[in-house]
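Example with several molecule types.
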Amino acid sequence: SAVISQKPSRDICQRGTSLTIQCQVDSQVTMMFWYRQQPGQSLTLIATANQGSEATYESGFVIDKFPISRPNLTFSTLTVSNMSPEDSSIYLCSAWGVNTEAFFGQGTRLTVV
Amino acid sequence: GQQVMQIPQYQHVQEGEDFTTYCNSSTTLSNIQWYKQRPGGHPVFLIQLVKSGEVKKQKRLTFQFGEAKKNSSLHITATQTTDVGTYFCAGGPNAGKSTFGDGTTLTVKP
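Resulting structure tokens for the full complex:
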């Protein structure tokens, strides 16, 4: 199984600023994804992080707002840009292992004030 | 777009009772996954089903994938207090890129 280290675990940010969230997987994975989850609600897929190329964004999410990098197979970052209070949420990275098993990071609880 | 619906939203059971949550998709799924999320925690992968009509068991948990690959269920036999949490199904046209259901939150009264 894989372990995903996600940081920061939480942050309180001023509106208009940006926050970069990092995810490091301890073993090789095939795919990596970024999700958003409001407390008590379901998960919404933001984008698929593609190694060495531009991420694939879901409807309603754009690169200028949520730039994503994945320079290698085991590391990815998500930046939440020009934040507003509406961006307050839990952000989760996810990865699929070679044995077709999914893993999630511990999440980043973001509060924008 | 694809929609994945899950019922019930909440289920309260007495310890020892059985529990079932159902998942229905508006489109045919190539696969479906089930996750458990404890309060304050992150989703934990339970299983993935890929074959039409597939049934898999993990101790007291039984997972089914419908013949048409548009629905699925998770059944827990003789619930325990450790089963509390929210159970999510997730499915999609491609492995990994999944749409999550709204989840079923299970509470177990000892």
